[in-house]
Structures are given as C-alpha cells and as structure tokens.
Amino acid sequence: MADGQQVCSASGIPIKNIYTPEDTKDIDYDRDLGLAGQPPFTRGVYPTMYRGRLWTIRRLSGFNTPEETNKLYREEYELGQTGFSVAPDVSTVVGLDADDPWVTADIGHAGVPMSSLEDVQATFEGLPIEKVSTYMADRCGAVNTAMYFVMAEERGLDLQEIRGTTANDLLSWSVPALINQPPPQAYVRYAVDFIEWCTEHAPKWNPVSFDSYNARDCGLNAVQELGMLMATAIQYIEEEKKRGRVSLDRFVRRFSFNTGLHNDFFEEIAKLRAARRMWHRVIRERYGIEDPRCALFRVHVQSSGSTHTTQEPLNNVIRIAYQVLAGVLGGAQSIHANGYDEGVCLPTDQSMLLSIRTEQIAALETNVTNTIDPVGGSYYVESLTNQIEERAWQYVQKIEDMGGMAEAIACGWVHREYMDATIEHERRLASGDITIVGVNKFRMEKEPYEVPIFRWDPEAPDKQIERLKKFKKNRDQSRVNQALQELERVTRSGENVYPAVMEAVRAGGTLGEIAGVQHKVYGVWHHPIGV
Amino acid sequence: MDKNKVKILMAKPGLEGHWRGIIAVSSAFRDAGFEVIYGGHMLPAEIAATAVQEDVDIVGLSILSSNYMRLVSETVKELKDRGRGDVMILLGGIIYKEDFPALKEMGVAEIFLPGTPLDEIVEFVRRNTSEASQKVS
Questions:
Q1: Of chain A residues 68-107, which have a CB less than 8 A from chain B?
Q2: What is the DSSP string of A9-29?
Q3: Does domain B7-136 have CATH number 3.90.1150.10?
C-alpha cells in the first residue's frame, strides 16, 4: 500500500508503519503484564499454560436425532476430543417442543432436538459424562442443563463433581432472531438464578459462558465485542449485588467466556490479551474481589462463521487455521475450529475430522505452544492490546450510561448496533474497503470445484415427534401438572426458580412446557430486528 | 403510495435465527427504492396471507438451515391456494447447488448464495419487474 495512506485494524484502530519502544513506554511490566498466572493475567490465566495442559479441543455439534448425535459424539470421543459441546436444534433453542406446529420443518436442523429428559439421555447414552466436560448451548433458563443434571443424578453421579458449562448468556441469546423469548430483564433473572443454584449444587460447573461470538458474527468489531462482553458480565454481577444472596466471590468464581476469532490476526491476539486484563480490573478494582481465581478470563474461542465463504470453500481451511493460531497465541483455554464447509452446508464427516486435525497440528507440530504468550513484549501487540482495552472501556461506559446491557438490549440500541455493523460491512465489501479473496477480489466466473455436502435426514422430524408423543403418554400427567404449577408459583414469587425447574424435569416436564411457564409470567418479547 | 414501486415481502420461514443476510438484502432493496415489508419469522401460510393482503410483487425468502425444500414448497402452495401463484419468489441463504433445478421447478425465480454482491440482487429485481424498469429508465 502507498506510503501515507491511513491503515487501520479491523476495529478501526490506526496502525503505524512500524512500532518502537516509544509505543510501549508507558507500560509498567508488573502492573500491566506480569507473568502468566499472575495479575493482571494479560499474558495468560495459568502459570504453565499449554506446557501444563493443552487447550480443550471442542466442537459445537449435534444434528438430526439424539441417536445420531450420540453416534457422532462417540466418534468425536474416539478421535480424542476431550469435551462435548451440544448444539440444540432451532426448535430447542426457541423453547418449543417437537410436537409444536411451528417447529415441524426445523426439527433436527443445525443441532440436536432435546424436548425432554429422554432426548438428553439418548444423546449421551454410553458416554462417560463423569470423565469429560460438556458445554450446553442452552436456551433461556438452562432447562436442557437441568435435564443433563437429572440424567447425571439417575446415573448415580454426584453433581458436586460434574463438569461442564452452560451458555446462560444474555449477549449471545440476544443475537439470533428468535421467536418465543422472554424479555431481556427476565433472561437476566433466570440466568442469575441458575448461577446462584450452581454455586451450591454444582460447584464445578461453569454456570455461564459470556459469549460474544454471535455478536461478532453480526459484523461487530473486536472493540465492540469486548465492550458488550464485559458489560454483560457486569450486568449479572450488578443483579447479584442487588440481591445479596450469594457472596460476589462465590458468584463469579466460575464465570467463563466465549469469543469469536476473526481475520485480523494480531488484533485478535491483542483482543484476548486485553480481555484478560479487563476482566481482572472488573473483579479486582470495580468489585474489590480478592480471590485471584475469580479474575481469570477463561475463554473458549471459535473461528468466525461469518468469515467463511460459500465461494471456493477450501479457502476456509486456511482462514480457520490462521484464526485458530490467533486463538493459540492469544492463550485460549478451549478452541472450536469450524468446518470449512460452514458456508455450504452443515459439516460433513470429512470437514469435522479436518477441524479436529487443524487444532492437533497447531498443538503438536508447530511448537507454538513451547513458550507462554510468545507475542508478549512485541511493541505492536502491546500497543494494540492497550488501545483495544482503552476503546473497549469507553464502549462499556456507553452501555452503562444506558442503564446496563439488559436495558441497552430492551431499548433496541444493541440491535441497532448489530444491524448498522451488518450494513456497514456490506458497504465496505462493495467498495473494496475490505478484501475477501474469491468473493470481492479474484472472484472466479464459475466455481472451480465442488465439495461434498451434508444431507439432513428428512425422517428426523417424524421420529422425534413420535418419540415425544410416547414420552408424554408414559409420564404421570398429574405429577407434571403439579410441578409446572409449582414452577409458576416460584417464578412469580421471585425466589430462585431453578430447584423448581429441576423438579419439573424430574416429573417429566418438557422444554416447551417449562418455557411456557416463563412466557405465562413474563410475556413474549419482540426481537427488534427489521428495516 | 407509489403504484409503480416494486413491493417486496421479506421473510424467514421456519425458526432458524440467522438474520444478517435478510437484513442486508432488505436494506439494499429499500435503498434501491423498492417498497420493503420486513416480515421476519413467519410460517408459510402467514407469508402467503401477508403477500395477498399487501399485494406484493415479490416474496424474498431467507433460509440458512437445510430445510428449504419443505419450506419453499409449502410457501408456494400457500400462495397458489390464495390465487397468487404469480408472485415472484426469490430465495437466499445456504442452498445446495444440486437442489437449484428442483427449486426452480417449484417456482423460485432466482437463488442467491452468501457472498452475492447486493447490486446483483437489486439488478435482478429491476430487470425482471416491468414497473421498476419503467421507473428507473
């Protein structure tokens, strides 16, 4: 590029031609960086990082039916995957049962349908849930997680020992245009109830994973991503502070995070470093929580689906590998490499294998794991880390001035940010301001090759509807009704709802019935997306 | 209301939540001077009923989960049942190439994959709607 032309990072931070000690002269090593495993954790959350333990290779997956998803999970386990990550199908995310007329066409699409305890049992049949950790991309109120917990109880496992994570996150929930959702403030109530419950009953379970992945995929930049992520976590802590039921150090002890990995390589590394320092500041400075374990920004990262192209899909293999490398250099605890065919279809067996191999090659062949935070001390990366942090704090402030994240969502501002980012991205793409190889540059007249595609099972909906009907017929209906009535009473009372959710699941209550109580009490929120 | 304006109903049949594409295309249509009704999530019958009620020229469907065959055919059927088989149907999203012929056979006028320049989509509408071509020329 020509000299004198303004070059910016993906989030608009002006980038110099070269960085020098002048750019990092205000950094105080002990105050701003420190060793890995030591405050402010900029260089890593653990003292030994990947030399002690590699990141978890974890793919979000699930499709067709619980049985087929179970088969997939068994294969993933055999391949050396160390954690499961449950993608519920859209009907489950929305909170409608398989026998609801709205969902028929969607059952088994983009995830596994889990309307009932029986579906969760079938999904994990024969899998050693005591040995692995499971991530549940659960809908509002952690209802599928309750099913997972009840399954664990039935297997005779102690919930005190069970490991995993529930999404339980307002930010990622706010993104997809979902019907049938309670308002954001109600979401926070359910989320905080679940965290409180876990501190006592499932202390090794991460009760929330604050997740900016979806938001980033709308077109937000790294600064907005971090700003919304921190503002959401702050919203939860403020809610608990108001309630005063659990001490804040216990409340935040197992908070975890999830971000996207985008194309701007160094900015993504700097983003993860800045996030660790910011979270430490939130915990230590804002809330005065002393326990250093609470200040660990433990993060799962995922290559961004929005960067994967439909054109020449094999190019995505390269994009994903770079994004994974940024995640590794950024010190992530868990990584999901997408299927390269994300823009074409749901992942095939071949692309699923390749994404696991992508991570294994980065981990075991490149030696990038030999030392901790290998880019630390780079004039450029340190300067970028500082600037991202500074700008992200300003963004947090903006959200707080609106009354916090739930309010910012409820008033429509957050969705305006999403939509503006989407439209701005298209404008920049059309103008050539950003380059996507094979899409707006070097585009081929005709697609040069085709890749294998995944075919969804057209019988999946019928199988699922049949199973649910049988499940409902075999349960004790009066016990279900009683449990749902009790759930409604507790929801209205303001007590913690989760014990009643667990009881409703034990009684045979379905996802749709439990979500139905949420709507009865809180009403349905209209997602503010439109033109 | 300008009778010459092309009127488009944009909708997502089914439940799947990806809205980025439909918002980008809806905005491009609006900026091009078309009249856009953003329906968001709708069942096929609701799409058809709205198309009739609003007397639209085009229905734009966005589907990024793999259930488009069923959702498109239901939408087409619902439109025909209401005597509006003439409405132009555009489909965008993640659609398998090998399904293109069957979808066109069903009555889809054109299919746009992710990465299609928005100008191309707008241009397609202009070229294929007579009112619009009079208006822009």
A1: 90-91, 93-94, 96, 101-103, 105-106
A2: -TT--B--S---GGGGTT--I
A3: no
The ranges assigned to domains in chain B are 7-136
Query: Residue B134 is which amino acid?
Result: Q
Please give the Cα distance from A421 to B30 (Å, whole number).
17
Quick one: pLDDT at residue A457? 77
CA end-to-end span of chain A = 37
The pLDDT assigned to A309 comes to 96
Q: CA angle, A441 as apex, A435 and A447 as ends, to 5°?
A: 125
Residue A105 pLDDT level (bands cut at 50, 70, 90)? confident
pLDDT value at A285 more than 60: yes
A412–chain B nearest CA distance, Å: 15
Those residues whose C-beta lies under 8 Å from the C-beta of residue A489, and which sit 6 or more positions away, are: none
How far, in Å, CA of A148 to CA of A138, rounded? 11
Q: For B25, name the nearest residue in chain A, comparing CA atoms only.
A: A423
Residue B136 has pLDDT above 50, yes or no: no
Which chain B residues contact residue A454 at CB under 8 A?
66
| Single pTM value for the model | 0.94
Assign B132 a pLDDT band (cuts: 50, 70, 90).
very low
Q: Give the span between the Cα atoms of B128 and B76, in whole angstroms.
A: 19
H/E element holding B42? strand B35-42
Could you tell me which residues are beta bridge partners of residue B92?
Answer: B62, B112
Helix intervals (H) in chain B: 20-31, 44-54, 68-81, 100-106, 118-128, 130-136
Mean per-residue pLDDT for A238-267? 97
Q: How far is B79 from chain A (nearest CA, A)?
A: 18
Please list every residue in chain B whose beta carbon sits closer than 8 Å to the beta carbon of residue A218: 20
Which residue do the tokens 């069942």 mark? B43
Cα gap A394→A401, rounded to integer Å: 11
Contact A61, A69 (CB under 8 A): yes
- Residue ranges of chain B whose CB lies within 8 Å of a chain A CB: 10, 12-20, 23-24, 26-28, 30, 36, 38, 40-41, 43, 65-67, 70-71, 74, 94, 96-98, 113-115, 117-119
Domains annotated for chain A, with CATH where assigned, are 21-431 (3.20.20.240)
Nearest to B129 by CA among B2, B8, B17: B8
Q: Cβ(A184)–Cβ(A410) under 8 Å? A: yes
A154 band by pLDDT with thresholds 50, 70 and 90? very high
Q: Whole-angstrom Cα distance, residue A350 to residue B122? A: 36
Residue A184: CA atoms inside 13 Å, Cβ hemisphere, count? 25
What six digits make up the tokens of A247? Answer: 């001490």
Alpha-helix residue ranges (DSSP H) falling in A377-476:
379-401, 405-410, 413-431, 460-474
Letter for the amino acid at B74? E
**DSSP per-residue string spanning A322-348:** HHHHHHHHTT-SEEEPPPTTTTTSSPP
Alpha-carbon gap, residue A260 to A216, rounded angstroms: 6
pLDDT of amino acid A458:
78
pLDDT tens, residue by residue, A470-489 = 999 999 999 999 999 999 99
Residue A125, classed as helix, strand or coil, is coil
The shortest C-alpha distance from A104 to chain B (Å) reads 9
